[in-house]
Design a protein that fits this description.
The structure holds two protein chains of two kinds.
Chain A: H1 2-13, H2 18-60, H3 72-104, H4 108-121, H5 123-172, H6 177-202, H7 204-228
Chain B: H1 4-7, H2 9-20, H3 25-38, H4 59-101, H5 114-136
Helix pairs in contact in B: 3-4, 4-5
Chain lengths: ~230, ~140
């Protein structure tokens, strides 16, 4: 059914050489899907190969472990590989797929496939987008952290003043210790709640901006792809 | 060549401004609540294997004495993690709906996005399991 839809689509958009374009695009589509599967399989096999010797050495010499048993650069390389794999997976899922799902109303699995092919085709746009995201993320992260530190200092100062007042009341008058202690605990809870809510609210502009930015980028990427007419969505 | 990524920064700032200004405490609080679920509470499904016989502490004895409690705790932590992973996936779409409609709601879009969220949650869960298994190999 999909094949039929695609043939109809390309027949409409490429009237000059219908058969040639249709066949070419079907082959391209199949090649891309095979490519994704092949890349996943290669990543999996490389990971097994990378860790096999280290794990084997670890298991055989479990009672007598020493650093000589392991190839440290090899292990570092393997860890870097796994970290990269994790980062790539997170980026694909949480920076692209979610927005594609939202814009195109597709399931996650369908969206992942489309997103990978979309990003591979428009790799320049994707890399620039990721770099801008990273740069803005660092800048906004530093600004947010500074704002949270200022908030924390303000609340610590407020807490210290309240503690000082309570201490003076306790020393200067005949107020009981337990009621003052209860009031102190309540104020401490309020200050901690203010810190948590304040920190969350400080991050709201950044979260909102990135939400719009990533959503608009994905919508524009899809529009651009549709305009070039290389594949129906 | 026109580059989309650079062109979209300023309009996104404008959109964020138009949603957040003038300051409305309720809108900000709702967005802050949504961000609790959207970030941070990720679930790591990495249960490392160990050999009880070679451990310096007698792990076998501890397991034998408290196995019921240990299993119950593992199940509770796992279920808690799975629940928050699921909520995180659904609330991501609730957040997108909220900012797109410029009408922030915490639970208003929840039902609508359960299907999409479940789909994303399952894919994320499978991806996490694959990576966790690679680390454990």
């Amino acid at each position: 059914m999909n094949l039929f839809r695609e043939i109809c689509y390309y027949s409409r958009t490429h009237k000059s050489s219908i058969v040639k374009n249709t066949l070419f695009l079907i082959v391209l589509r199949n090649a891309l899907i095979s490519d994704i599967l092949m890349r996943s399989a290669i990543i999996f096999l490389i990971s097994i190969a990378l860790f096999y010797s280290s794990v084997k050495a670890f298991i055989i010499n479990f009672d007598n472990l020493s650093l000589d048993l392991f190839n440290i650069p090899y292990i570092i390389l393997s860890v870097v590989f796994i970290v990269m794999l994790t980062i790539i997976t997170r980026i694909i899922l949480w920076t692209f797929t979610i927005y594609y799902m939202y814009a195109a109303h597709k399931t996650a699995w369908e969206s992942v496939q489309k997103v990978i092919s979309l990003c591979l085709r428009q790799w320049k746009e994707t890399i620039i987008f990721l770099l801008i995201n990273l740069g803005l993320g660092i800048a906004i992260g530093i600004a947010t952290a500074l704002a949270v530190i200022v908030l924390l200092l303000a609340l610590v100062l407020a807490g210290a003043i309240l503690f000082g007042i309570g201490f003076l009341i306790y020393k200067l008058s005949a107020v009981l210790f337990i009621p003052l202690m209860i009031i102190g605990i309540i104020l401490l809870v309020i200050l901690i709640a203010a810190l948590i809510i304040g920190s969350l609210m400080i991050s709201v502009p950044a979260t909102t901006f990135f939400g719009y930015y990533q959503m608009d980028f994905m919508k524009s990427l899809i529009k651009k792809q549709v305009k070039t007419g290389s594949k129906p969505l | 060549m026109e580059l989309l990524a650079g062109k979209l920064v300023a309009p996104s700032i404008e959109k964020a401004k138009s949603l957040l200004w003038p300051f409305q405490l309720v809108t900000w609080l709702k967005l802050a609540m949504l961000s609790i679920f959207m970030g941070g509470m990720s679930f790591n499904t990495n249960f490392r294997s160990f050999n009880p016989q070679n451990s310096p502490i007698n792990v076998a004895d501890i397991i034998a004495n408290y196995w019921g409690l240990i299993i119950a705790m593992i199940i509770i932590i796992a279920l808690w993690g799975i629940l928050f992973s699921f909520l995180r996936a659904v609330f991501q779409f609730c957040f997108l709906d909220s900012i797109a409609a410029k009408n922030v709601q915490i639970l208003g879009y929840f039902k609508k996005n359960i299907k999409k969220g479940t789909s994303l949650f399952l894919l994320d869960f499978i991806a996490n399991m694959i990576i966790a298994n690679l680390i454990d190999l």
